[in-house]
Design goal:
Largest sheet: 6 strands, antiparallel
Shape: globular
Strand order of the largest sheet: 2-4-3-6-7-5
Helix content: 40-55%
Number of strands: 14
Radius of gyration: 22 Å
Distance between the termini: 52 Å
Number of domains: 2
Length: about 375
């Protein structure tokens, strides 16, 4: 049996720069929106509009209408996938990824709602719900009302979630369109996309794609990304074709041999990240991009904060307020900023405001007091 090539130790900055390169954050790319979504294996997108910012910060001359057009022509969809959360993916990946993460959906359903449906034939619930959403897109309220006609004394949320677990549900437009919104209405993947592709990817293929977009990474990192367990078996199958490293803490990291790993001293421009940025959520050890103390602070507040990076690492938070035609970007650093860093952030912030608040008659950038 062949073994993975050993690449030695990889330092924190080298790991950071490799991650930024894979995440298209060292320089904006001319990739198309579908190609970007495919490369990133989707983007977390339960907030309907903030993923647009994730594309803007990665792509040259990105316009919101580019993604809206894909949602309208069904080339891209919003669907519950990795970690059981809503992701924005190309249609082919909706078909390919959803069956692979079914154990995640089942685990959440059993742990959070299983007891509420004791004695109920869940297969019957799923069949009734599928037929209902196949007729036309439905809100969860309409779905729950419909299911309660058959099980009037049972828990509404448990019934609704049984359908969400058993039926791959697409959140349909106008929800998620640029500059528009609508009710959270769902229909089945079959009703929305028609026939599935003839060949669906294996978990081995998907893990390799994860490494291409997020590597070098550990088994635990990959599990944090998708929510699946026992991926060690997958990495062992892939090991002969991979290269391995040890991080500064001694953890084994896997990577594709030909994947880019830039010089650790290459400059990393400031970037504004959105509230559910996958780069910050897809590792068990996030120290490659964010200080562990900041992670713990986020978890204590239970907030999903929009962050920004300096020199490749999260360095604070940001928000945009709109009032009477004025859009104000407030930047809150973790620590005092140098004049060069503040100037670079302001330059990037002007572009951010032009994208997010193009109809505002006045733009303003304000730096708040550092948190530390």
């Amino acid at each position: 049996m062949r073994h993975a090539i050993t690449g030695g130790t990889i330092g924190l900055r080298a790991l950071n720069r490799a991650t930024l390169e894979r995440q298209l954050l060292l320089r904006r790319t001319t990739l198309s929106v579908p190609a970007t979504l495919e490369h990133l294996v989707g983007m977390q997108a339960q907030t309907p509009h903030t993923a647009y910012l994730g594309l803007w910060t990665r792509l040259v001359d990105f316009r919101g209408e580019q993604l809206s057009g894909l949602l309208l022509d069904r080339s891209a969809v919003r669907i519950a996938l990795m970690r059981g959360t809503i992701h924005l993916v190309i249609a082919r990946d909706a078909w390919g990824l959803r069956p692979l993460v079914q154990p995640v959906m089942d685990r959440v359903q059993k742990s959070q709602f299983g007891a509420r449906l004791a004695g109920v034939d869940v297969d019957e619930v799923v069949a009734m719900g599928r037929a209902f959403v196949d007729e036309q897109p439905r809100t969860f309220k309409a779905l729950g009302d419909h299911l309660l006609t058959r099980w009037p004394d049972r828990d509404r949320s448990g019934l609704e979630q049984a359908v969400r677990t058993g039926v791959p549900l697409i959140q349909v437009p106008p929800r998620g369109l640029w500059g528009r919104s609508g009710p959270v209405a769902h229909t089945s993947i079959d009703a929305w996309l028609g026939e599935p592709p003839a060949k669906l990817p294996s978990i081995d293929t998907v893990v390799a794609r994860y490494l291409a977009a997020f590597g070098p990474a550990s088994v635990m990192d990959a599990q944090a990304w998708c929510g699946l367990t026992k991926l060690g078996e997958v990495f062992e199958r892939l090991r002969p074709g991979l290269v391995t490293f040890r991080d500064e803490g001694g953890r084994e990291l896997f990577d594709l041999p030909d994947a880019p790993r830039p010089d650790p001293d290459i400059p990393a421009p400031p970037r504004f990240l959105y509230d559910f940025e996958n780069m910050l959520l897809s590792y068990a050890d996030r120290s490659r991009v964010i200080d562990p103390e900041m992670v713990r602070g986020f978890e204590r507040t239970q907030e999903s904060l929009s962050t920004f990076t300096l020199d490749g690492f999260v360095a604070g938070t940001w928000g945009v307020q709109r009032l009477r035609g004025r859009a104000t970007l407030t930047i809150t650093p973790l620590a005092p900023l140098s004049s060069a860093s503040a100037s670079a952030l302001a330059d990037e912030g002007e572009g951010l405001l032009a994208f997010l608040a193009d109809k505002a008659t006045d733009h303003d950038i304000r730096f708040a007091e550092p948190r530390m």
